[in-house]
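A common beginner's mistake is to predict each chain separately and then try to dock the pieces by hand. The better habit, illustrated here, is to supply every component at once so that their relative placement is modeled jointly.
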Amino acid sequence: MSILEVSGLRKVYTTRLGGNRVEALRNVNFSVENGEYVAIMGESGSGKTTLLNILAALDKPTSGVVVLDGQNLAKIKESQVATFRRDNLGFVFQDFNLLDTFSLEDNIYLPLVLAGRPYREMKERLDPIAQRLGITELLKKYPYEVSGGQKQRAAVARALITNPKLILADEPTGALDSKSTDELLELFGEINKYGQTILMVTHSVKAASHAGRVMFIKDGEVFHQIYRANNTIQQFYQKISDTLTMLATGGDRR
Amino acid sequence: MKKGIYSRLALTGIKKNKKLYIPYILTCIGMVMMFYIITFLSSSDMMMNYPGGETMRGILGFGVYVIGFFAVIFLFYTNSFLVRRRKKEFGLYNILGMGKRNIARVMLWETLFIGAFSIAVGMALGVLFSKLAELVMVNIMSMDVTFGVTIDYKAIYYTVVLFAVIFFLILLNSLRQVHLSNPIALLHSENAGEKPPKANWFFAVLGVLILGCAYYLAVTIKDPVTTLAAFFFAVIMVIIATYLIFISGSVAFCKILQKKKNYYYKTNHFVSVSSMSYRMKRNGAGLASICILCTMVLVMISSTVCLYLGKEDSLRERYPRNINITMTSQIYSDLISQDANSIAKMSIETAENMGYSPENFLDYSTLAFVSYIRNGEIVFDDGESGFDYATGDLWQIFMVPLEDYNRITGSKETLENNEVLISTSKDMNYGYDTVSIKGQEPLNIKTKGTNFENNGVDTMQIIPALYIFVPDLGVQIERISQTNAEALETVSRFIGFDLNASDTEQVQVYDAISDNLRNSEIENPDSSLVVSVESASNEKQSFYGLFGGLFFLGIILGIVFIFAAVLIMYYKQISEGYEDQSRFEIMQKVGMTKREIKKSINSQMLTVFFMPLIASGVHLAFAFPMIYKMLILFGLVNKVFLIMVTVGCFLLFALLYMLVYKITSRAYYSIVSGGKEK
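With all components supplied together, the output reads:
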């Protein structure tokens, strides 16, 4: 069963003075199955971030349809968008986006507090997640006191605590050192094993090689996609590299 | 090309940061203008021609120092804010290859531009508005209007020198700040990781205790004399306590709320409480300053408005009748002799002969002396050590014959030989049932009253008066002279009456009476009587000079302080806007609706903004008993009137405050939501 369905997605930006029109997304079609781990790759300016913003309901497409778990994002009322996002999506950002005025614990609670959940329930939900992510000891600390990897794990915990249908990750390893990157990617793999659907946008071949499927975006279109299938991470890494080289040197599949 | 680069960099820097610079420049202009105006007025010759002008000039001269001093502190404060915000830009210049020397040149140009511009414009506006200020003052003091604008070159000179020095010091300070920092730190100076606020319980509790003490002091104070000394202490205590409570107490309070999990983890409280504690950590001092400024403005404006609006009352207290005649003598019997009576009669006839009908007569004799009252006993001072005002048991005593009392009040009291009636002034109570003169039998007090017909002497003094009405003043004087002859001062007889006439006519009557008195003195050179006459109308101008001067200064300082409070608030809003910008972006991504964000901002803003106002309102309420006691010294005893004026001032101020809130919060919202577009 597919949890996310994207068809005919188009996004045109008009520059501020109304002169130039930039087509960020031309015609994007794909679907994500429940429990899948998908990475989207592409160069800067290929439309990755635009796509992610539309999936996150932070932006509206010019045309095309996004259906998440049977619900058309375009049909959600403006006032409901934030609630929808809170209940169905989890976010992991490159720069963590933790609020520095909150302890890690409070940062993780934030979406639940906004949803009006009682404290006891929040605590019950947090304990197993914190344990799994290895941040139980850090919960009382503030963002400025912990390392980037630890911050990102707290951000993952914040994304997970609402039991979202889909986790959207925007360059989650972008600001991490290699050790933290490995840890985080392992963590993602593990979460995915528990059945969590993940959609990750990334530059990094290493990050993409942990996914089950990699889609390549070029000039506003899904240009190519490859599945890991039975490959090891090493082998998959090689395959992705080759594909990127081919894309960069102008190979044309069509 | 290279020649103008520094000045151009400075200019673009100002232009690019106009949200920050425009208010700063406006403040500079405003301060220059105010300083010029008040310097101009304090040295204006115009006032010398008016009675009371000298008093006014003195008061304004004091104001010059206050404003000058305040300008230094205030411009420094606002400039440090600017420098903090611009460090990033300077860091960038530095990385791009500009040395600190070059940055210093940019800053020099910048200060030059701002300084020259604001001094020039401020001066121009100052000259323009000095005429207006003059007219206002003329109106306040009921003087005649003159026309034509005058420019005081001396005032210009002082203003230019003062502000040139201020701007120079500001430049040095900002250079120091840039010099001390390195480029990377400069670039990141704004988003250095911040420790969570720690509640300092000791200071929080200390603040509450000090405030409690100050309030207790203010409420329990009894007599005006100790008020003067205590007021100063109370002010210092309140200032310290306000800072402690705003800085530590508020964070501690947020911590308590955070500990209550069921309260804290609610949609409405969660974000607000935690960001409040940060806000208070950063802004506690600023808010405390706003609170104190507001309190100062309120106390100053309300008390000067009280004085000004109550000036007629005060004049009447000081000069109980339009024409007041005082006769003094060493011998009591002379005061009630035929001679004395004829002087009184002559004065009245003088007025009648000029076609006026004297009315509302007042005529009584007193034995007046100052002494301590301890345990119901009048203790005379030895006359060597001088009086100790601080103890609060020093009284002005007026001993008045019962027959005068009965005549004036229209009552028919009778007293035994060992009985007296008493009356106190200045809101004081006499705490004993008997009163005795040292070394004599105690006299029983039959009834206690307050506010017996004033004779003007009481109003001039800061100590309260105790009127003792005795069956026979002559006998009392005899007795006192036996036991305490050294303390015996002169006896006086006070005669006064009102005239239904204009001020100028009254002065004419006064002159005529003075002339006649002088003639009769010449006729009777042997008389033991010393006679003096005063006219309320004649003294009116100097009275208005004093009260009008205080009022005018109160308004000017009030405006300046309001300026300051507004600007601090504005910068507060702007700096918080920049800080909150990224925070609210994150919250939106995590799933907070725009409405929730707006609600949270609103509740925080309201708290941050109105806390100082409310706190200053409470301060004012507790200061009122003290202010009241001090206004009594000026002869203002109408408590209801004073309360109404004070409340009115507060409401007006609150209205103004609200307006400022509306305007500045708009700037804040535009910054916060400006971040979202990006």
